[in-house]
């Protein structure tokens, strides 16, 4: 088990700060370009189903990459896979840069590349995250990671929107994609300062299946809670920014939307990460889940920019109350004892399989519904139904949110 002198105080050491830095560079590069990838492809296709298929393929490949790469991460050098995830992400944006307006004709290939990139990066990141944090500082790390993400979410999309809106044709998009490539390279460079902690034993391919079918395992309800979390992430991650662009027709206004909502998220992640204690997780997460669902209601008045802005600000304010307890409690469960910690790679894979199972189900449902009807009221009810899934997460997690690992 990882223990450190900062455990009692919950302070972050040098390795945690380095991991935050790498994550910050990766998130910045992704936010600069990723916010507008959906818009870029939408402008070329005007097809929700095609974009949904792209997202669905990304989730399938991400899940497969987690499961297959788990062996190499556990038995080899996890840092190689971690850096490869950043490198393949750079390759994705390089491909979009080279293909230009023809990217829409290679949507399947791009979905495969992005899925592999995300799988490699987040598998490596989550294993390293578990190794450099513990139950005493995990909420604080997640809060700071959320702060970094919010600051990036404020500045990066706004800068992208400004550059794209000031340049003609695809010139602005190409410049933003090139800047992202540079940031991915910087992330790889910083990652060399992270230590590679060796893991014990051989990779157990069948552990996720045994956990699922095993009697009285806490992981079965946790898996369901993670799937409910992923259900919302996939659809909302695709649709919200795209709806803002469709309503306004402006990349700059999409950047402004990200600036305002991420500003609210910055305040909330900082406050939640600093003051939310493990014993308050159940109530905090309940408030977060109810509020996240309630924030969708303004969209029933009409999917306007104003309604989307109310939704975005409200979601940013209450998301940390849902996300931080959920994430910290799951990783506390992975660190429940020495035997569990030795299988941390397999448990991280199980966590990501749960999230991606939900993402795939959510996107399949979304594609099926919009293939039948794209009426605004149908779209709103779909968002409401899928957006209510955090309540399911809370129902499965409520008895496990204050779980703490046993000392080793």
UniProtKB/TrEMBL annotation:
Superkingdom classification of source: Bacteria
Q: Where is this protein primarily located?
A: membrane
Q: Give the protein name, as stated in the record.
A: MFS transporter
Q: Where in the cell is it found?
A: Cell membrane
Mind telling me which residue stretches traverse the membrane in this protein?
Answer: 20-42, 48-68, 80-100, 106-129, 141-164, 176-194, 230-248, 254-273, 285-311, 317-336, 348-372, 378-397
What InterPro entries does the record point to? MFS, MFS_trans_sf, Sugar_transport-like
Membrane topology field: Multi-pass membrane protein
């Amino acid at each position: 088990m990882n223990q450190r002198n900062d455990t009692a105080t919950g302070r972050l050491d040098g390795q945690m700060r380095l991991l935050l830095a790498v994550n910050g560079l990766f998130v910045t590069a992704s936010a600069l370009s990723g916010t507008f990838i959906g818009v870029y492809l939408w402008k070329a296709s005007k097809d929700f189903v095609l974009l949904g298929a792209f997202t669905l393929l990304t989730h399938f490949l991400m899940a497969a990459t987690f499961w297959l790469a788990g062996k190499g991460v556990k038995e080899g050098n996890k840092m190689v896979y971690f850096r490869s995830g950043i490198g393949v992400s750079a390759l994705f944006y390089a491909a979009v840069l080279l293909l230009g307006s023809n990217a829409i004709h290679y949507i399947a290939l791009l979905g495969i590349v992005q899925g592999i990139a995300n799988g490699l990066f987040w598998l490596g990141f989550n294993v390293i995250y578990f190794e450099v944090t513990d139950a005493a500082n995990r909420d604080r790390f997640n809060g700071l990671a959320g702060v970094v993400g919010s600051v990036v979410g404020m500045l990066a999309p706004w800068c992208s929107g400004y550059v794209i809106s000031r340049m003609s044709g695809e010139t602005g998009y190409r410049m933003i994609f090139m800047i992202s490539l540079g940031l991915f390279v910087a992330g790889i460079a910083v990652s060399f300062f992270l230590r590679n902690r060796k893991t014990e034993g051989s990779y157990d391919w069948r552990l996720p299946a045994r956990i699922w079918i095993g009697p009285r395992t806490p992981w079965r309800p946790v898996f369901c809670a993670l799937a409910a979390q992923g259900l919302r992430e996939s659809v909302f991650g695709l649709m919200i920014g795209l709806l803002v662009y469709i309503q306004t027709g402006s990349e700059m206004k999409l950047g402004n939307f990200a600036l305002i909502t991420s500003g609210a998220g910055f305040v909330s992640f900082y406050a939640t990460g600093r003051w939310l204690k493990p014993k308050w997780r159940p109530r905090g997460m309940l408030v977060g889940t109810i509020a996240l669902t309630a924030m969708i209601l303004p969209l029933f008045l009409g999917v306007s920019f104003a309604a989307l802005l109310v939704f975005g600000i409200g979601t940013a304010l209450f998301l940390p109350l849902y996300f931080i307890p959920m994430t910290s409690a799951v990783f506390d469960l992975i660190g429940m004892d020495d035997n569990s910690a030795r299988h941390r790679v397999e448990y991280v894979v199980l966590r990501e399989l749960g999230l991606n199972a939900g993402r795939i189900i959510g996107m399949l449902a979304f594609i099926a519904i919009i293939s039948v009807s794209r009426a605004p009221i149908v779209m709103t009810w779909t968002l409401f139904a899928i957006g209510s899934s955090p309540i399911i997460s809370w129902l499965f997690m409520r008895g496990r949110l204050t779980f703490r690992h046993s000392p080793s």
